[in-house]
Amino acid sequence: MRAVVQRVAWANVVVDGVMVGSIDRGLLIYLGIGKGDDEAARAYVLGKIVGLRIFPSDAGKMDHSVVDIGGALLVVSQFTLYGDVKKGLRPSFESAMPPDLAEEHYAAFVREARALGVTVATGTFRADMAVASLNDGPVTIGIDSAKA
User: Fold this and answer.
1) In-domain check, residue 7
2) Which of 84, 97, 118, 123 has its CB 3.0 to 4.6 Å from that of 33, i.e. a possible disulfide?
């Protein structure tokens, strides 16, 4: 499982002209699910995300998590995180989990994040989405369960 995590002042996602998810201060999460990903991969990535100490303390050090600051997550499905361009210029997505199974993992990720008490907004799985955000810092972190 792969995630690109951005610390944001705000973020939202629009589908067919309708805003379907929006957060203020928190983390914008682009979440990709690969073939073979399981509950352990999901738990690893989710644990890293909610525990990331990338929000500033009063001293200006990155020392607080999204939980510490009462922030929110906007989770956007992003199978293109598994794009492979080793051969040619058109990405192959063979390593991405098939959509039906990936959607189950995506829904479980969101459900498990909410169970931790984190406010979670979402995009729409398999939709063409317009994502807007104000990256705060900027701070962008990649997480890959294969490197656990």
Assistant:
1) yes
2) 97
